[in-house]
């Protein structure tokens, strides 16, 4: 689960971590009052969407002006005007794709007199099963660009869970960033609080870009991105309350409500599979035969007829889908349950694209018999290879 920058800043502030004072604005008429509550003389006006690259992005609507989603204002009136221009408009960044995302919130915060910018992140290292710290002197830039162009400027190390984070870890970050004197002590304190917050809140990712030294020598975090482990959200009702469903793909949101593992992709063949490994194999073989999967969808081993029906409805709601491949290996999951769910869904939403069904395993004969007697225009497949060939041929001709 992701949250907005202004929400992340509030969380950082609650852990005693230095961030700028700011106000969130939901309506344009609130912007002038919000900006007036800040000291100035420089205000930063930021579009709030769940995507990076906001400063370099552009708006689809000319009314939003030519500047990106992060703008510097030199008066309360200018800050209010920038907020008015951005609210309700569609911001396109390198991470949103050309569809962009609508800006429903603006964050106005005090400007900062920056001397140097750094990059700092806490991540889960899957290879070592440890929390990893990434630091770089190249703040304000995409870390992917830094990794590609100057990888020697990225410093990475992991934290042993047996000892947890120690002061020397913070000093290691400080020295990697070229800090000195009192800045080292401040950096140690910030790193310790970031680590405590990361573990307290079951985060997957915490990215600070930029992490700054100001002209007066103090340290401040000027931007923050946070992602939380969805499987642990039940332990954190305060974090769950920060969820903004308008930022999520409607299909993925609907799937989450029925405990379906769904991720939207850019292809034309919808997939409904049980088991993550089989789902990945199904996507791979679709690509092997010259097409692209429209989604990853694992209905799980204990799916009910109702869950299968909802899964089918989610797939067919995607206008990109030109064909559907159902690939079920019945171990825990019974093939007759899948068959009943598919039939129920087709009768409810209709079938406007080719449908190939491959069933194997528990109650396979019963499942095939149910589909055969349904009278639906379904193409039967004997195995995964056969199913992939048939759905690609049906879609591409």
TrEMBL record:
GO biological process, one term: succinyl-CoA metabolic process
GO cellular component terms attached to this protein's record: cytosol; succinate-CoA ligase complex
Pathway involvement of the protein, from the record: Carbohydrate metabolism; tricarboxylic acid cycle; succinate from succinyl-CoA (ligase route): step 1/1; One-carbon metabolism; formaldehyde assimilation via serine pathway
Family designation: Belongs to the succinate/malate CoA ligase beta subunit family.
Cofactor note: Binds 1 Mg(2+) ion per subunit.
Cofactor: Mg(2+)
Binding site for Mg(2+): 209, 223
Keyword list, A-Z: ATP-binding, Ligase, Magnesium, Metal-binding, Nucleotide-binding, Tricarboxylic acid cycle
Record protein name field: Succinate--CoA ligase [ADP-forming] subunit beta
A single GO molecular function term of this UniProt record: malate-CoA ligase activity
Function: Succinyl-CoA synthetase functions in the citric acid cycle (TCA), coupling the hydrolysis of succinyl-CoA to the synthesis of either ATP or GTP and thus represents the only step of substrate-level phosphorylation in the TCA. The beta subunit provides nucleotide specificity of the enzyme and binds the substrate succinate, while the binding sites for coenzyme A and phosphate are found in the alpha subunit.
Complex and partners: Heterotetramer of two alpha and two beta subunits.
């Amino acid at each position: 689960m992701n949250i907005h920058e202004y929400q992340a800043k509030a969380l950082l502030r609650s852990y005693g971590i230095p961030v700028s004072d700011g106000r969130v604005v939901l309506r344009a008429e609130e912007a002038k009052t919000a900006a007036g509550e800040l000291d100035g003389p420089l205000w930063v006006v930021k579009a709030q969407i769940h995507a990076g690259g906001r400063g370099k992005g552009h708006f689809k609507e000319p009314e939003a002006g030519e500047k990106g989603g992060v703008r510097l204002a030199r008066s309360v009136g200018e800050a209010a005007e920038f907020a008015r221009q951005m609210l309700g408009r569609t911001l396109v960044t390198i991470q949103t794709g050309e569809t962009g995302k609508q800006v429903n919130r603006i964050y106005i915060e005090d400007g900062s007199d920056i001397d140097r910018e750094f990059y700092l992140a806490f991540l889960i290292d899957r290879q070592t099963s440890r929390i990893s710290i990434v630091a770089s002197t190249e703040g304000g830039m995409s870390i992917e660009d830094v990794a590609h162009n100057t990888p020697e400027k990225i410093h990475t190390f992991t934290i042993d869970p047996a000892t947890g984070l120690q002061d020397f870890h913070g000093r290691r970050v400080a020295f990697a960033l070229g800090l000195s004197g009192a800045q080292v002590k401040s950096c140690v304190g910030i790193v310790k609080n970031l680590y405590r917050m990361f573990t307290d809140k079951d985060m997957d990712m915490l990215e600070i870009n930029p992490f700054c030294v100001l002209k007066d020598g103090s340290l401040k975090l000027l931007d923050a991105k946070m992602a939380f482990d969805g499987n642990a959200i039940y332990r954190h009702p305060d974090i769950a309350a920060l969820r903004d469903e308008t930022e999520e793909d409607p299909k993925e949101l609907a799937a989450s409500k029925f405990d379906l593992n769904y991720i939207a992709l850019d292809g034309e063949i919808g997939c409904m599979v049980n088991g993550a490994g089989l789902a990945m194999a199904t996507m791979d073989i679709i690509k092997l035969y010259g097409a692209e999967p429209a989604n990853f969808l694992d209905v799980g081993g204990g799916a009910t007829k109702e869950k299968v029906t909802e899964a089918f409805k989610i797939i067919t709601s995607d206008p990109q889908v030109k064909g559907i491949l159902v690939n079920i290996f019945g171990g825990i999951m019974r093939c007759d349950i899948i068959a009943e769910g598919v039939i129920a869904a087709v009768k409810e939403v209709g079938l406007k694209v080719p449908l190939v069904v491959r069933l194997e395993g528990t109650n396979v004969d019963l499942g095939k018999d149910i589909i055969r007697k349904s009278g639906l225009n379904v193409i039967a497949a004997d195995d995964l290879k056969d199913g992939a060939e048939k759905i690609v041929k049906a879609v591409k001709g």
